[in-house]
Every structure is written in C-alpha cells, then in structure tokens.
Amino acid sequence: MKKIVIFGTGSIALRHYKLLKTKKVEIFFYTKKKNFSKNFKIINLKDDIIKLNPDFFIIASKTNLHFEQLRFIEKNFSRKKILVEKPLFSKYQNFKIKKNDVFVGYQLRYHPIIDYLKKRFKREKTFLIKINCNSYLPEWRKNIEYHKSYSAKKKEGGGVLSDLSHEIDYVQYIFGKIDKINFSLLSKISNLRINSEDIFHFIGSINKSKIIINLDYFSKFKKREIEVISNKNHIRCDLIKNIIEYKVNKKSKKIKFKLTKNYTYLKMFDNIFFNKDKRKISCGYKEGLNINRLIDKLKSRSK
Hints:
Layout: E1 2-7, H1 11-20, E2 25-30, E3 41-43, H2 46-52, E4 56-59, H3 66-76, E5 81-84, E6 101-104, H4 112-120, E7 128-136, H5 160-163, H6 166-175, E8 180-187, E9 199-206, E10 209-216, E11 218-229, E12 233-238, E13 243-248, E14 251-256, H7 263-272, E15 283-284, H8 285-301
Parallel strand pairs: 1-2, 1-4, 2-3, 4-5, 5-6, 7-10
Antiparallel strand pairs: 6-15, 7-11, 8-9, 9-10, 11-12, 12-13, 13-14
Helix pairs in contact: 4-6
C-alpha cells in the first residue's frame, strides 16, 4: 500500500485526507500540535518521516512554511511525487528541484470549463478576457475563525492575490503568459479583521489581448466567472454553476456540466499520484515558480 505524508492540519489538509481515504493509501499527518485528533496517524519528528519513506507528499501547511518543508523533502528523498498547495511559496525562491517531481495544487485546471477554453482558444484569437472571483473570507473555513487563519496574516503568506492565484494560473494556462502590466491595485479596503490585502484589480495583456482581473474576499455574493470576447464570439463561463454561455452572431448556446463538489481534486490526484490520466495538465514546479515571480512583480507594481 502506498504511503502519503501530509504537512499541515488545516481545512485544506483535512480535505485532502478525506478524499484520499477513498484510495488504497495509508495517510500520515506531520504535525507538532499536541491537541490534534487522535483519530489520525501522526508523525511528530522529521526523522520518523525519513524512516517511513513515504511514496507521496502533500504540503498543505501555511504558505510561509512551504519552502522549508519542500527543502527538507528534496534533501532527504528522491523520486517522490510532491503536491504543494497553491501558491508554491510566499515569495519567489531561487531553489532547484533535482531529485523529485513537484506539482502545485491549481486544481481548477481540471475543471471541464477550463479544458473547453484551452482547446477552443488554441485556434481562436481574443481581444478581451475578463476574470472575476469574489468571495467572503469569513465563510471559507468552518474549523477556524477567519481572522486567525493564515489568509488573514500577511506574514504567514495570506492575501487575496496569493489565495486566489488560481485565476493567475488558469488564465496563463489557457491563453499564454501575461506579458504586459498596465495597472495593478492590491490593497486592504474592507472592515475585515485581517492585515493582508483583500482586493486585487489588474489590467494588462496576453499576446495583445487585453485582460482584466478582479479578486476580493469581502463580497457576500460569491462569483467565479470568465468572459472571453473575440471578433466572432462572446463566451461567458460560471465556474460555480458550471455553465458556459456563448453567442455567435445572433445565435446563443448554453452548456451545463454536472460535477461533484470534489471533482477537480479527485482528477488532480488521479493525474499526479495514480497515473490515471497521462495528459500533462498539472502545474509543474517551474510554472509554480513563475507564478510566484509574477505575484511578486504585481505586488511591487501595485498602488
């Protein structure tokens, strides 16, 4: 039976555990927390991880701990598959991976809407891409008060641009690299009890196509949408309702996908750990580093 070690004990770590329980794997948590549930298999010492010699690793801890934990794995193991929750690091690190395979948890790449757009816009050129992701941080996690989570704390790697960097990843996965920054706003404007940024507004370009990205975590009406406009088509996608609507001239059409809540996570596990999908979909280490580099650049250019 394959063995997995999960770094972290928060909501995303527990979600990974719950989903992976359905597979034929033995799961361990690495934590120093003394009050963590006795229902799990716990490892308290890094030397014990080395003795266990697991097949897979998941780093689902606070973002500011990712680099140290990945460096430990790279130093002590080889030929292992490692999934790091997004973003890869709290800031860009000039660190090379030579012995293991590292992936970043941008699981929205596995959403059928993202797959549809990627295939469609290999051929069709666009002139405007609009991305909106609005959510309400106090509703994100049930196991912790929102202001105590790492998302609320800048020093722990929190902030809307890092937490919602899915949008940065998938827009480049579909359309190509962001190559021009016209305007970038990253700030804290709401009355949420956090010191991290809660709004990001961006205008730039990808291959001469204008792109507008809006992210926040103070909106009580949840939204995750993509709009793509070309000379012939106008496509609107809802990643929460799993709907694509498009108009070609005067004709309109709607496509509805039926997905389970954890569809994209399970597809990601199958692709990375269990070799059930041979396509290269997952975000690799170099891509994750490039997203970190872009996030740092956007932060430095923000008003």
